[in-house]
């Protein structure tokens, strides 16, 4: 039997290496920490709009970095990435609680 040339041309997306996974986890964790900081900041004024938007943008960026590792990385990196994504639940819940009063 001859191999199908169309199947031979299909390639799987390469899994991130350990170095790339570590870099993505570090960037994602740093962005998540900044997002938590902005989410918990107390301002003297009443305008939390910019702070909430920055926090939400950082959360989405961090989750994108961590999801790349959680989807294709090595097993240990996957677990670490999923653990680093947990503050997303708090940030989204707090954003949904504050958003009706700010927007």
Tally of alpha and pi helices: 5
Helix content: over 70%
End-to-end CA span:
65 Å
Mean pLDDT: 84
Q: Which stretches of 5+ consecutive residues score pLDDT under 50?
A: none
Q: How would you characterize the largest beta sheet? A: none
Number of strands: 0
Strand content: under 5%
Structural class: mainly alpha
Radius of gyration: 19 Å
User: What are the secondary-structure elements, in order, as H or E?
Assistant: HHHHH
Number of domains: 1
What is the global morphology? elongated
Task: Describe the SSE topology.
Blueprint lengths: L4 H4 L9 H23 L8 H24 L2 H10 L2 H16 L1
Helix pairs in contact: 2-3, 2-4, 2-5, 3-4, 3-5
Précis, in short:
This protein has 103 residues and is mostly helical.
Could you explain how this protein is built, in words?
This protein has 103 residues and is an all-alpha fold. It has one domain. 75% of the residues lie in helices and 0% in strands. It has five helices and no strands. The protein has helices at 5-8, 18-40, 49-72, 75-84, 87-102. α3 (49-72) runs antiparallel to α4. The chain is elongated and about 75 Å long. The mean pLDDT is 84.
